[in-house]
Amino acid sequence: MGPWAAPSNSVTFARSVSYGDANAENMAFFGDNLDALGSLRPRFEGAVRCAYLDPPYNTGRQFAEYTDRLSPSDWVSMMAPRLEAIRPLIADDGTVFLQIDDTELASLQLLADAIFGRDNRVSTITLVRSAGTGHKAINRGPVNVTDFILVYAKCKSQWRPNALTCPRSRYDDAYTLFVPNRDASPEQWRFLRLEAHVATTLGHKTARAAKLALGISAFEAHKQAFALAHAGQVVRFAQPRYEAVGREFQRFIDRSRGEPEGVLVLKRAGNKDVLLRGGDRILTLADKVEQHNGAPTLVEPLTNVWNDIPFQGIAREGGVTFVRNKKPERLIERILRMATDEGDWVIDPFVGSGTTAAVAHKMGRRWIGIERGDEQFFEMCVPRLQRVVEGRDLTGISRAVKWGGGGGFSVMGST
User: How far apart are CA 54 and CA 56, in angstroms?
Assistant: First the structure.
């Protein structure tokens, strides 16, 4: 069978060996992914919650493990049947993630729009994987430092991703007020300037005096630490969009504007109460604080620009070396946290060194990985997954998820 050939109707896949728990459902396939996807359909149609695809980028380069050089039309011809074969496996509330660089980004988006439906395209994530330094900085024009992840829902109306947050790089300066009597009824709340209150706790009469005595940077550090430690009492005012809310809310705003010094509370069944003062909402810093590594941390909703996942320093992840092609375990972890729950099925038809399978295993997801390259599969992927099962892989997300080994998988081969 030549490179990226059409599937053979006679191809079947059989279990060749198991590692760990012989009853485990996880599967590592060796062979052409188009054949494997076709063989999976009878059992897995509509059962896979998340598909992650990291196909060849068609960069025109020659790697040690494979040649990444097809004509643009041949690359599309290679990808089209594979996306078509993936689609029926995805659950109605499932998600497809397609990672690519800008070489074939436009072609892949047009292809995926046609197969999954343009209306089901959720996002295009910009993944910052390096900085504009080193040898790349000598290039003329913009330095390429990004990949892209196209995100599609199988059925957008049924798509319910898990909400994720990420730490903010700095304090949110909009939160400038402190409520010393937060335990009182909202109608009795008093609002102090946060800076002035922090200065008092430090033994200074004013914030200006505290900044002069401690230095601005040191005072800001004290203020931010105090705010995080007392996040339930730190607030800000925000003007609601009057035209975007319902009539009940608008009447509530009108009433609050007529009583500018009082705090009004709107009770909402199944939702958080809304607090208004002078027509403005009262927002609490505690709603933006989560525990990270045992410490309160200011967070914000995940956006479509991911610049906080380092690609440097991953050479030893999983105990395999796959230069310029291996993806960080933290990247796959984020994708799986967004799109899956424990026990869900995950599939990667270009599994390469096994990153997706390793992360899914550590996170308690069931997985299917497919790879046709001998070196990637037998020298990287399978040994890596053995180490995961045996609890010998302490790299990647292992410590974060407290992975200690367990489970198992079967190796399947074409016959």
Answer: 7
CA-closest candidate to residue 91, choices 160, 147, 35: 160
* Cα dihedral sign, 392-364-126-61: positive
CA angle 100, 370, 10 (to 5 degrees): 120
**Tens digit of pLDDT for each residue in 153-177?**
999 999 999 999 999 888 999 999 9
Name the superfamily (CATH) of residues 13-164+303-414: Vaccinia Virus protein VP39 (3.40.50.150)
Ranges for all domains in the chain classified under CATH 3.40.50.150:
13-164+303-414
**pLDDT tens sequence across 83-131:** 999 999 999 999 999 999 999 999 999 999 999 999 999 999 999 988 7
Q: Which residues pair with 379 in a beta bridge?
A: none
Residue 182 tokens read as 């937060």
Burial of 98 (0-12, 13-18, 19+ CB in 10 A): buried
Name the pTM for this structure.
Answer: 0.85
Pick from 30, 41, 26, 32: which is nearest to 85 by CA?
Answer: 41
